[in-house]
Specification:
The chain has 79 residues and is mainly alpha-helical. Helices cover 86% and strands 0% of the residues.
């Protein structure tokens, strides 16, 4: 059985990504947010908590949107 600490660790990583999303315009925050979704998917499968999959895919899509938007904004600034 997976320790409850995994849930706390994944939440801490995700919150760190969110803080970085809102505190800076770098790509680090969305990249952390996207990376932690893969860990949540593994957690969901390992613990058979299938609803975490929906959450991970939704947050992952939001982070991909954020990455795309920031990348486009950087491209516009450079041009």
């Amino acid at each position: 059985m997976i320790s409850l600490w995994w849930s706390f660790a994944l939440t801490t990583i995700g919150v760190t990504g969110l803080v970085l999303v809102y505190r800076s315009q770098s790509l680090v925050g969305p990249l952390i947010g996207l990376a932690v979704q893969f860990l949540w998917i593994a957690y969901a499968v390992a613990t058979r908590q299938w609803w975490f999959l929906l959450s991970a895919f939704t947050y992952g899509a939001a982070n991909i949107y954020g990455l795309t938007k920031r990348r486009n904004e950087r491209t516009e600034v450079i041009e």
